[in-house]
Every structure is written in structure tokens, then in C-alpha cells.
Amino acid sequence: MKPFIYDYTYDELREWAVAQGEPAFRGGQIFDWLYVKRVNSFEEMTNLSKPLRQKLDEQFAFVTLNEITKFESKDGTVKFLFGLHDDHAIETVIMKHNYGNSICVTTQVGCKVGCTFCASTLGGLKRNLSAGEIVAQVVQAQKILDDRGERVSSIVIMGTGEPFENYDATMNFLRIMIHDKGLNIGQRHITVSTSGIVPNIYRFADEDTQINLAISIHAPNDALRSKLMPVNRRFPFDDVMEALRYYIAKTGRRITFEYALIGGVNDQPEHAEELASVIKDMLCHVNLIPVNHVPERKYVRTSRNDIFQFQRILADKGINVTIRREQGHDIAAACGQLRAKHMESGAR
């Protein structure tokens, strides 16, 4: 199978052009056609010679995302289930905010992290996505927004999969997204979320970017986190916290702790007290997430009163804390739910 043209960064396309006996700026022109003009074929790249367009067609393929289904929420959230070239399926979400359009992208087909409250792990991990398959999700979303005269203003890498288990592809995706000659998404408008893949938290800290880091923590201690997140047995709670402290010291940037509140499991006052004591000296923000009900899981949502009580305890301890605004609640917008339904029909 030919490599995807979206797999290539700006610099790599310039290098490819030179290898074909062309001036480097031809690679920049290709990049412009892909991300500024957003063409669907090499034949549309009309300022390139016909022989060069033929070489592109011979050596590369466009990523094909076939729309299997689409759901639109009353709040403006649009969730897509896309089919890939090998018949696997992935989810991508467009979320409309008062500050613009945010795209939630997927980095893997399935997930092996195993969080017990998440639909993404149902069926396990099938494969990593290439950088180009992640890029294509944003390009596809931008083409949809083009019809409205709008643009992608922010990206969250919080869809199905663990981006730090697909680190190199994720980083190439980010380099393509932030390049000023392409979609030019501001680094501070991008957030990558990890479940705590410790070696790659250190790597990410050393990348020297302004991209935001979020950590799915979901428990205030090692024992409870291991029950909720089997990945904690590979990368224990204390090791994760040590890596995050390194990240903060190295970058000077605030991290976000994502904490899914599960009724009667991790949402009691003692959990809030313990969490506050663990993170009190860290440059951080806590985002409380009322857990979505997943039919295949037995967890229930935390009551409204308990959500606000948990928030108050953290705030009283000086922790910066918010409750995530729910979006797409009426269209199975929790990660993996749409794909899980699709898999029930015998698809991949």
C-alpha cells in the first residue's frame, strides 16, 4: 500500500521534492494544496507540472474516510463514524463552543489501556493510526466547516486510543497541524490527553512546545486508580505524578487533571480531600467529568449534589477546578460508544 500524503510534514515534503529533482519550494506548494486549498486529488494541484503530479499519484495516496454514520446533537455537536481503508472504523467529533469549533480526534483503532468506565476499550486495540489518518480527521472536519465559512479553532486529542502509545505519529500530526503554512492551529489551542504513559510524558516535556497536556487521573491514589485504570499497574500513580512534576518544572506550563466522577466509586468527600492533598503543590487545573453511562459498563453517574460538593472541597483547598460542560449527551458522544454499536453489527 502506498504511504498517505498526509503522513508527511512540511519539511519532509520539501525533502521529497528535492529527491525528485525539483526545487524544495515545490514541497511547500504541495503542503499548501493539502492544507490551505484542501484539494482531494493530485490532479487539482495545477501549479505543479504534469510529470510531478503523476509522481505524486504513483507514490502517495490520499486518506479515505468514508462516512458510515453521523449524529448531530441539539447543542451543535456533530459525531462521525468514519470507515478506514481496511474496514476498521473510528470516531471524530466537532464541538461548537462560543469561542469557535473544536475537533476531538482519535489516534488508535480501539484502545488497550482498559479503563473500566470507558467504551473505547471494548474489543481492545486493533492498530495504531498513521499520522496522516489523524490529520485526515481534522481536514475532513475543516472541509465541512468551509461550507459554513468557519474554521477549526482548537483540537483535543481525546478520542479513542492512547496518543502516547502512538507517540511518533501523534507528534508528526501535531507538527503538521501547527505549521504556519498549513492549517496553522495555535499550539495553545491544542490539548493532548494521556492516561499516564510515563516515558512519553518525559519525552513530551522535552519537545519544547506550547501544546497543552492533560492527564486522565480519575483517582487520588494508587489502589483505586489500578481498579479503574489497569494501565496504572504498568505506570504506578507515584511514577505518573513524578513525571508530571518534571513536565511542570521543565515547561512552566499548567497541566489539566481529568477526573471522571463515578457514582459511589471515586466521588466521595474523602476522595476529593485526598486528591487535593496530592496535587496542592502543582501548577494544575482539575476538570471534573460526570461519567457518561455506557450500557456495557455498570457504573452510574454521580448525583448533581455530589458533583458540586466534590468541586467545593477542591476549591476550598485552593485547587483550580471546573466541571466539564457536557456536549452531545443525546447522541452517544462518549468516546467509543458509536464504534461499539457499530461493532455489535459484526463490523470491525
Automatic annotation (TrEMBL):
PROSITE patterns per the UniProt record, alphabetical: RADICAL_SAM (PS51918)
Active site positions: 91, 335
Record text on cofactor binding: Binds 1 [4Fe-4S] cluster. The cluster is coordinated with 3 cysteines and an exchangeable S-adenosyl-L-methionine.
EC number: 2.1.1.192
Pfam families, sorted: Radical_SAM, RlmN_N
Top-rank taxon: Bacteria
GO biological process: rRNA base methylation; tRNA methylation
Domain spans labelled Radical SAM core: 97-330
Enzyme class (EC, first level): transferase
A Gene Ontology molecular function term of the record: tRNA (adenine(37)-C2)-methyltransferase activity
Chain residues that bind S-adenosyl-L-methionine: 161-162, 193, 216-218, 292
Compartment annotation: Cytoplasm
GO cellular component: cytoplasm
Main location as per UniProt: cytoplasm
Entry keyword Methyltransferase: yes
Catalytic activity: adenosine(37) in tRNA + 2 reduced [2Fe-2S]-[ferredoxin] + 2 S-adenosyl-L-methionine = 2-methyladenosine(37) in tRNA + 5'-deoxyadenosine + L-methionine + 2 oxidized [2Fe-2S]-[ferredoxin] + S-adenosyl-L-homocysteine; adenosine(2503) in 23S rRNA + 2 reduced [2Fe-2S]-[ferredoxin] + 2 S-adenosyl-L-methionine = 2-methyladenosine(2503) in 23S rRNA + 5'-deoxyadenosine + L-methionine + 2 oxidized [2Fe-2S]-[ferredoxin] + S-adenosyl-L-homocysteine
CDD domains: Radical_SAM
Annotated [4Fe-4S] cluster binding sites: 111, 115, 118
Keywords from the named record: 4Fe-4S, Cytoplasm, Disulfide bond, Iron, Iron-sulfur, Metal-binding, Methyltransferase, rRNA processing, S-adenosyl-L-methionine, Transferase, tRNA processing
NCBIfam families the UniProt entry points to: rRNA_mod_RlmN
Function: Specifically methylates position 2 of adenine 2503 in 23S rRNA and position 2 of adenine 37 in tRNAs.
Similarity remark: Belongs to the radical SAM superfamily. RlmN family.
Additional information: Reaction proceeds by a ping-pong mechanism involving intermediate methylation of a conserved cysteine residue.
Name of the protein: Probable dual-specificity RNA methyltransferase RlmN
Natural source organism: Paenibacillus woosongensis
